[in-house]
Amino acid sequence: MLLTWDRMRAPGCFLTLITFPVMLRQASGAGKWCYDSQDVSCGPAHWKDVNHNCGGENQSPINLDRTRMHRNQNLGNIIFQGYDRAPPGMWRLMNNGHSVLVRLEGETVIGNMNISGAGLPNTFQALQFHFHWGSPMSDGSEHTVDGKQYPMELHIVHLNAKYRSVAEATKDPNGLAVLGFLFTIAEADNPNYNTILAGLKNVSLKGNSVDLASTFRLDNLLPSMEKLSRYYRYQGSLTTPDCEEAVIWTVFEDTISISHAQLNEFVDTVHFTAISETPVKMKNNFRPPQPLKNRKVYASKYTMINHSASVHVSQFTFLFLLLLGQMQLHL
Ligand SMILES: *[C@@H]1O[C@H](CO)[C@@H](O)[C@H](O)[C@H]1NC(C)=O
Ligand SMILES: *[C@@H]1O[C@H](CO)[C@@H](O)[C@H](O)[C@H]1NC(C)=O
Ligand SMILES: *[C@@H]1O[C@H](CO)[C@@H](O)[C@H](O)[C@H]1NC(C)=O
Ligand SMILES: [Zn+2]
């Protein structure tokens, strides 16, 4: 009894009583996360406080270090089904406050576009695609290749056909398959992006959505089909909270080109914020690379990357510089 009373009077106990309401408030605000461009206090470094998954062992994105990849001869061509025709129905463009995404599935049906083969354990059905981008001044891809970040990244999210919802699939390391495409800037516009770009003004604010003018062949958005046999593969996570480690990642070696003006339309038009809030432009909505830890990254059968080839190049460069140095000595 006495011991209990003493404890009750201990300062630590009062501290507990005082901090309790604060903790309650944090718990009810759980799920609030953002990018550093909105507020560093809820940016990617703090996501593990929102959900402990985000501090896990198999997080995405990662830096794809081509000198440490393992070539896997079983990673052959991906079988794309339905990517080569505009499906019936409507695709909905939405601003979810973190990205702009296109919902590919109808009210009840999915399965208009599938991927399989290429080491995937099942058929995976396309659900939605979305983008991560930087700013007019800086790059905004999530994956980096040999430490290099790219201006933008497209993610096409697919659901393992044995599941009926993302909620079910996120409990399985093979629940989702995401295709990641990096962008490079070209002089010319990429007209295949016009339908999406035209819809951006209708999803300028968080919570906005609009039906796109038409569906289209999904492969129009991508590098040409024969280039899609060159990719990197690893086991990872969703790149936003709750960071579930349920994703088979495929990131392609070949990039999609887009003009500077087209990329700027994303930054100029879309906002992180809803109508009632002070407007904040949506930019730099990417998570930086996460530690690889114990994972391996595989290069597909047809990737052109070769570690020893790149060593040769640097040896040649060395010789060349040596030669150049000697020539200068002679001059
Ligand atoms: C996609 O896969 C589902 C389930 O396996 C199948 O019912 C559907 O016909 C496939 N779609 C295409 C375009 O092949
Ligand atoms: C999209 O925005 C444009 C320009 O603001 C407007 O004219 C058009 O009606 C909007 N479309 C839809 C479907 O809301
Ligand atoms: C690069 O080539 C060497 C020799 O042909 C081979 O042993 C190695 O596995 C290759 N590496 C990759 C990543 O393809
Ligand atoms: Zn993404």
Automatic annotation (TrEMBL):
Keywords recorded for this protein, A-Z: Glycoprotein, Lyase, Metal-binding, Signal, Zinc
GO CC annotations, alphabetized: plasma membrane
SUPFAM superfamilies: Carbonic anhydrase (SSF51069)
Domain Alpha-carbonic anhydrase: 31-301
Organism, as annotated: Microcaecilia unicolor
Protein's name according to its UniProt entry: Carbonic anhydrase
Cofactor: Zn(2+)
Reaction catalyzed: hydrogencarbonate + H(+) = CO2 + H2O
Its job: Reversible hydration of carbon dioxide.
Family: Belongs to the alpha-carbonic anhydrase family.
UniProt cross-references to CDD domains, sorted A to Z: alpha_CA_IV_XV_like
Domain of life assignment: Eukaryota
Keyword Nucleotidyltransferase in annotation: no
GO molecular function: carbonate dehydratase activity; zinc ion binding
Gene3D superfamilies hit by this protein: Alpha carbonic anhydrase (3.10.200.10)
EC nos: 4.2.1.1
UniProt xrefs under InterPro entries: CA4/CA15 (IPR041874), CA_dom (IPR001148), CA_dom_sf (IPR036398), Carbonic_anhydrase_a-class (IPR023561), Carbonic_anhydrase_a-class_CS (IPR018338)
Pfam family, one: Carb_anhydrase
Region forming the signal peptide: 1-29
